[in-house]
Structure formats: C-alpha cells, structure tokens
Amino acid sequence: MSEESLPDDRRADARHAEDSLLNGSHSGSRGEPVEPADALPEYAERVLDVAEGIPPGRVMTYGDVAEWLEEGGPRQVGRVMALYGGAVPWWRVVRADGALLPGHELEALGHYRAEGTPLKQAGRAAESHLPRLDMRRARWDGGEGAEGHT
After folding, report:
1. First to last CA, the chain
2. Between residues 121 and 127, which one has the greater pLDDT?
C-alpha cells in the first residue's frame, strides 16, 4: 500500500516511523519508551540480524529481507543497510536485478569472488563491464538451517 492511499493519520504515522528509523529514537508521542539517540532501532537490529545470517556465497534481496521479517519493504531495508550495515556482510543484501551496489562494486565483487558467490559475466553492451550476481543460483530463501522468521 502506498503512503498516498493511507488515511491522513496513518500517513503521519508512516512518516514518523521513517523519521524514527533515521534518527534512531522514538519521540514517545504514543507512550513508547524513548531510546537514546545512539541506540539502534529495533527494526534495524532485526534487518542486520538477517544480513548476518545469510551464508557466505548466498544473497537475499532487500525485498526478501522485508518479507522474511514480515515488516517493512525493500526501501526500509535499503535505508537500514545504508545507515547501519557497515558492520555486517552488507554485500549479501542486494538489488533484485543482481547489479552490484553502486559505489561499492569492486569491494562487493571481491567479497563475492572470495565467497564463491555465483556471478554472470557482463554482456558486451554492459556499460561497466562488471559481472552481475546470478540471482537464480545465488539467492537464498532463508532455508538450509535457518532458524525461522525473527
């Protein structure tokens, strides 16, 4: 459901939730406990836990992570990874098209090669000439020893 289709009060709540995710605290406007500004938001902790659980050589898309958590969406997961993902294997949470993370392509590629992540060679017409992830083979569904939804 898009924000535009939400009633006004729900739209404000959605904006408040995004603001809380960005600044790492709750305003307490609904009686929620107020967290210190440097505390990691609970949703961010859950996203990072999923990222840490992805086995070497496998990947999940931003949407896969949101679906696994049964909360948020690809954009929320992407925002968490952008803000807090540096301490986890961030290269294992990827775009659905298999393109390498812009600005971090070479670093990610090094991780993929070290872990044996399946890649597809770039086509002749590809601008960057960098490979893409072979999503059919690299995508992980959370099975194979996963502990279940968090």
Report:
1. 23
2. 121
Of 28-32, 62-66, 124-128, 136-140, minimum mean pLDDT range: 28-32
Of 53 and 33, the structure prediction assigns the larger pLDDT to 53
**35 and 46 co-located in one domain:** no
Q: Which residues contact 63 (CB under 8 A, 6 or more apart)?
A: 73, 74, 77, 96
Q: What is the DSSP letter of 3?
A: G
Residues 86, 72 within the same domain: yes
pLDDT at position 128, please?
63
Residues 103, 50 share a domain = yes
What does the pLDDT read at residue 89? 98
pTM: 0.70
Please name every residue paired with 59 in a beta bridge, in sequence order, or none if there are none. Answer: 139
How many C-beta neighbours within 10 Å does residue 54 have? 21
Report how many domains make up the chain.
2
Q: Which domain holds residue 26?
A: 1-39
Tell me how far apart the alpha carbons of residues 113 and 35 are, in angstroms, rounded to a whole number: 40
One domain for residues 119 and 84: yes
Distance of CA 13 to the CA centre of its chain: 22
Q: How far apart are CA 95 and CA 88, in angstroms?
A: 17
CA distance 43 to 71: 9
